[in-house]
Specification:
The protein contains 16 helices and 42 strands. The chain is an alpha+beta fold. The strands form 9 sheets. A 9-stranded antiparallel sheet has the order 1-2-3-4-5-10-19-18-15. A 9-stranded antiparallel sheet has the order 6-7-8-9-20-17-16-11-12, with no helix packed on it. Helix 11 runs antiparallel to helix 12 and helix 13 runs antiparallel to helix 14.
Length: 822
C-alpha cells in the first residue's frame, strides 16, 4: 500500500494526468471540453474600446474558473494593455477532425501567422505556423504567450522540468534595464526595463497539488520561460512564453497543453438570492444554478435562524425546473408566502446561503454606503478624508491644458482639426479645476457622465425627497469629511459639485467639452492618491488635457442638467441656480441659430443628438414652463421616439407640462415597450436583461427597473413596478455565476475585490456598484472575486451609484404605496 501511495505521488510530481482525466471533445460550440475543463481557441476577441481586455486567444477554464487567457503571438514577454496585438483574419473550426485554425496578422509589420489547435486525447496541441520566415525586425521579440491568472496560483506551486517552485504573492523577480520605456508600465521617468523569467524549462506543471488548477504544458520546439507580468504593471499576469525561431517556416512552435479534468466533477449548486434580503410584500424567488451534469432538481429548504443558534424550517419544496441557459441548468424556488420578519437561509443539495433578512425596512439603509462613501470618494478637486484615512488629496489643482488638434487619445478621447476655443494646443485653460467626479476606476472627468449624475441627483431630490446629511463639504476649502453632518442635504451639495464643473466649462471656453483626461498612459494607469498624479502647478507637463471640439449633443446634455440643477438649488444656492439656468437658456437659443455641431468620437461626445436635444427641451420646460420648450418637445418627439426604450423616463417627465395628445403618444410607446420587455423576460431565468457585450450589464438592469417604475408612476394601470424588485434582487445576488451582491458593502456577502482606485490593494469602495456578469463566448458567465483588474466586470462607474440609490428609493416608494401610504 505504501508503494502504491509512493507511485501516485511520483506520478503527480512528474505531471502525469491522474487516472480520472478524460479526453477532450470539440463540440458544436467550438470549444474543447471534458468534465471540469475547457480549452477555448479564439472564441472571444480583444475589447476594441480599451485594447487588451484579457478575453481572447487560447483560454483555459478549469472547474468553472477561467485561469488562462491571451494565448497568442505577442512581441514582448509581458505585454501591457496598449501593446500591439495581432488582428484576427479568419477562424475555422472542424469539429469532426478536432481542429481549430486561426489566421492572424500584424499588418503594419508585414507579419502573418496561423495558430492551429488539434485534439490529442486529454490534451490540445497548439502550434504556430509560418508561410514565410519571421521578419528580421521581430527576431528575438515575437513569441507565443499564454497568460495565467495570478490569483488562481497564489499559494500554489509549479514544476519546471521536475524542479519545484512556488508562485510569488508579490512581484519580486529580476528585471533587466535598458531599451525604450514601456508607457503601459506606468513609469514616466527613468530607463526602460523588462522582466526576466523566474523559471525555465521545456515542461511545466502548474499547481501539481491542486486538481482544480493543474495544467501541464510541454514544448516540442524549445525552452519556455515563466514571467511575472506584475513587475511591469499591477494588472499583469504570470506569462508562459516561447520565442519564435528566425529563418524557419512551417510549424515553428508546438506546445501540448493538458488541462486537468476529473470524470466525476460536478459544480456545486449556486443559490441565487438577495444578499440584502426581501420586504415582506415583495416576490421572493431564488434561482438555483446547476451544473449541466447535476441530478434533477431536488428540494429547497428555507430556514429561519433562531437566537439560540438553532433553525426552524419556514418553508420547503421541490425546485421548479427552468431549463438551460449558458452552460448551466436552472431551477427556481418561490417563497413569496413567507412574510414574517427575521433572519433566513436557503439550502439545497449541500449548499447553504449566508443569512439574509426579511423585514419591512430591508431597503431603508441599502443606499447609505453609496451616498455616504462611494459618491464623495469620487469627488474631484477636493480632499476627501474619512476619520484616519485620506482617500485622496486636493487633486488636479492644475487643470487643464488645451489638447492638441487632430489627435486621437487614450480612453476614447479625441480632438478635431481645431481647438474650438481661444486657446492654443498646450496652453493652460483657467477655471476648470473645480467640481466634478472622477469617472470610474481611473481619474478623468467625462462630461457625459457628469451631467447624467447631476440629473439623477435632481430626481433624488425632487421625486423622492432624499435629504440625508452625513457628509461635510466645503467647496471654498476644497475639503470633504465623511460621516460628519454639516446641516445641508448631501444630494444638494453633490448637485452643486457637479454643476460647478459643468458651469466652469461654459465659462472657460463657451461650450461643453468632452472632458479632462490624463496626458499619457503613465498617468492614466496611476494607482493611489489622485493628488499625487500631478504637481498641482498649472503649466507643467503633468497637467491633464481638456478635449474641446464642439459637440451639440454635449451642449444639450449639459444644459439639460443645468436646467434641472437650477430647480434643486433654488432657495439653497440661488446664485448658482440663476447662473445654471441662464447658461441653459442662452445655450439653447444659440444652438437654434446654426446647424448642429456633429463631432463624434468614442463615448465621450454625448449620446444621440435626438435624445440629448429632447432631454434639454424637457428639462427647460419643467424649469421654466415656457411654451416654446413644449413646442420643441412636440417637434422633437418623432426623432426621439425610437430611443424610448432607453430614455423613457425623460419622455414621461414631460407629461405634466404637455397636452393630452402627447400623453397618449407616450402611453402607446410605453405599452409597446412593456410588451417587448415582458417577451424578453423569458430569455434567462432572472427576468432582467442580461447583456453580452464587452462591458457587463448592471447598467441595463438598473435602467430596466427604473423604466418600469417610471411607467408605473405615470400609468399605474400598465405595470405594478415589480421590475424594480427584480433588478434589485439581481444586483444583490440573484444572477449567474455566483450569489455575491454587486454593491460593495451591501448585503451579507458583497463585492470586496473591485476595480476602484484602490484595486491594487485587492479592496473595494463601499457603495460602489460594479458592472456585473460578463458573458464570455460561447457560454461562460464571469465576475471575478479574486482578480479586481477585469474592468468590464469589476470597475465602478460614478453614474451607476446615484442610479442605484434611485432604484432603492423606487422600491421604498412602491412598498409605501402597497402599504397604503404608510
Amino acid at each position: 500500500m505504501k508503494a502504491l501511495r509512493w507511485l501516485v505521488s511520483t506520478a503527480l510530481l512528474m505531471g502525469a494526468a491522474p487516472a480520472l482525466a478524460q479526453d477532450l471533445e470539440l463540440g458544436d460550440k467550438g470549444v474543447y471540453h471534458a468534465p471540469g475543463a475547457d480549452v477555448l481557441v479564439f472564441s472571444n476577441w480583444y475589447d476594441g474600446l480599451f485594447a487588451d481586455a484579457k478575453i481572447s486567444g487560447v483560454e483555459l477554464i478549469l472547474q468553472d474558473l477561467r485561469l488562462a487567457t491571451n494565448g497568442d503571438v505577442r512581441l514582448s514577454p509581458t505585454p501591457g494593455q496598449w501593446d500591439p496585438i495581432g488582428a484576427m483574419v479568419k477562424r475555422e473550426v472542424d469539429a469532426k477532425a478536432g481542429t481549430i485554425d486561426v489566421r492572424l496578422e500584424y499588418k503594419d509589420l508585414g507579419f502573418q501567422y496561423r495558430i492551429r489547435a488539434e485534439r490529442q486525447g486529454g490534451s490540445v496541441v497548439v502550434s504556430v505556423n509560418l508561410d514565410k520566415p519571421l521578419p528580421a525586425a521581430l527576431a528575438g521579440k515575437a513569441g507565443f504567450n499564454l497568460e495565467f491568472l495570478p490569483a488562481a496560483y497564489f499559494h500554489h506551486s509549479y514544476l519546471a522540468d521536475g524542479t519545484g517552485g512556488t508562485f510569488p504573492l508579490h512581484p519580486a523577480s529580476d528585471m533587466v534595464a535598458g531599451g525604450e520605456r514601456n508607457a503601459a508600465s506606468g513609469r514616466d521617468v527613468g530607463p526602460g526595463a523588462e522582466p526576466l523569467p523566474f523559471a525555465s524549462g521545456t515542461r511545466f506543471v502548474l499547481a501539481p497539488e491542486d486538481p482544480a488548477r493543474r495544467v501541464t504544458i510541454a514544448s516540442a520546439t524549445g525552452t519556455l520561460g515563466l514571467y511575472d507580468g506584475r513587475d511591469m504593471a499591477q494588472n499583469g499576469w504570470f506569462v508562459l512564453r516561447g520565442l519564435l525561431p528566425a529563418n524557419k517556416t512551417g510549424r515553428v512552435l508546438e506546445w501540448t497543453i493538458t488541462p486537468n479534468s476529473v470524470a466525476d466533477y460536478v459544480r456545486k449548486p449556486v443559490i441565487g438570492h438577495s444578499q440584502l434580503g426581501y420586504a415582506p410584500e415583495q416576490a421572493k424567488r431564488a434561482v438555483i444554478e446547476l451544473d449541466a451534469r447535476a441530478p434533477a432538481p431536488g428540494t429547497v429548504t428555507l430556514s429561519r435562524i433562531n437566537a439560540d443558534g438553532t433553525s426552524t424550517v419556514a418553508g420547503s419544496g421541490a425546485a421548479e425546473p427552468w431549463g438551460s441557459y449558458l452552460r448551466y441548468r436552472y431551477a427556481s424556488f418561490d417563497f413569496s408566502q413567507v412574510r414574517a420578519p427575521g433572519l433566513y437561509q436557503l439550502s439545497y443539495a449541500g449548499t447553504t446561503t449566508a443569512p439574509f433578512r426579511i423585514a419591512p425596512d430591508v431597503y431603508s439603509t441599502a443606499w447609505h454606503a453609496t451616498n455616504d462613501v462611494y459618491i464623495p470618494v469620487a469627488m474631484d478637486h477636493v480632499t476627501v478624508n474619512e476619520a484616519y484615512r485620506v482617500w485622496h488629496g486636493d487633486a488636479h489643482r492644475d487643470d487643464a491644458k488645451q489638447a492638441p488638434v487632430n489627435h486621437e487619445h487614450i480612453d476614447l478621447y479625441a480632438q478635431g482639426p481645431t481647438t474650438d476655443t481661444p486657446y492654443q494646443p498646450g496652453e493652460h485653460i483657467p477655471g476648470l479645476n473645480v467640481g466634478g467626479w472622477l469617472d470610474a476606476g481611473d481619474f478623468d472627468i467625462r462630461t457625459q457622465t457628469q451631467y447624467a449624475v447631476v440629473r439623477t441627483l435632481v430626481d433624488l431630490w425632487e421625486v423622492y425627497g432624499v435629504k440625508r446629511d452625513q457628509t461635510w463639504i466645503d467647496e471654498k476649502l476644497r475639503h470633504v469629511e465623511l460621516h460628519v453632518p454639516d446641516g445641508t442635504p448631501d444630494v444638494q451639495q453633490q448637485i452643486v459639485h457637479g454643476s460647478l464643473q459643468l458651469i466652469a466649462q461654459f465659462d472657460a471656453v463657451g461650450h461643453a467639452i468632452h472632458g479632462i483626461v490624463e496626458p499619457d498612459v503613465a498617468q492614466y494607469t496611476h494607482l493611489g492618491d489622485a493628488a499625487s498624479k500631478t504637481d498641482g502647478v498649472p503649466g507643467t507637463d503633468d497637467d491633464r488635457w481638456a478635449f474641446t471640439s464642439k459637440s451639440s449633443a454635449l451642449n444639450y446634455g449639459s444644459i439639460a442638467a443645468l436646467a434641472a440643477a437650477s430647480r434643486a438649488l433654488r432657495g439653497y444656492r440661488d446664485d448658482l441656480a440663476d447662473k445654471a439656468l441662464g447658461i441653459a437658456t442662452r445655450v439653447w437659443a444659440e444652438e437654434q441659430t446654426h446647424a448642429p455641431d456633429l463631432f463624434r468620437h468614442g463615448n465621450t461626445t454625448g449620446g444621440p443628438l435626438e435624445t440629448e436635444q429632447f432631454t434639454a427641451a424637457v428639462e427647460l420646460l419643467a424649469t421654466t414652463k415656457d411654451r416654446k420648450y413644449a413646442a420643441a418637445v412636440e417637434t422633437l418627439w418623432p426623432g426621439f421616439a425610437k430611443f424610448f426604450p432607453f430614455q423613457a423616463e425623460v419622455a414621461l417627465k414631460a407629461i405634466p407640462f404637455m397636452p393630452k395628445a402627447y400623453r397618449d403618444k407616450v402611453r402607446t410607446a410605453a405599452e409597446a415597450y412593456l410588451a417587448q420587455a415582458k417577451a424578453r423576460q423569458g430569455d434567462n431565468p432572472y427576468g432582467v436583461p442580461v447583456t453580452e457585450g464587452g462591458w457587463a450589464g448592471n447598467g441595463a438592469v438598473v435602467g430596466a427597473g427604473l423604466t418600469d417604475y417610471a411607467i408605473h408612476r405615470a400609468f399605474p394601470e400598465l405595470t405594478d413596478g415589480s421590475g424594480v424588485f427584480r433588478a434589485l434582487d439581481y444586483l444583490h445576488g440573484t444572477h449567474p455565476g455566483s450569489d455575491v451582491s454587486f454593491v460593495s458593502g451591501v448585503g451579507t456577502v458583497s463585492k470586496e475585490v473591485a476595480y476602484g482606485s484602490n484595486r491594487a490593494d485587492f479592496s473595494f469602495i463601499a457603495g460602489g456598484v460594479v458592472p456585473g456578469v460578463l458573458i464570455l463566448k460561447p457560454d461562460f458567465p464571469e465576475n471575478s472575486e479574486v482578480w479586481p483588474f477585469f474592468w468590464g466586470e469589476n470597475e465602478y462607474v460614478i453614474n451607476l451609484g446615484p442610479s442605484y440609490i434611485e432604484l432603492v428609493q423606487a422600491a421604498e416608494a412602491l412598498l409605501k404605496e402597497r402599504r397604503g401610504g404608510k
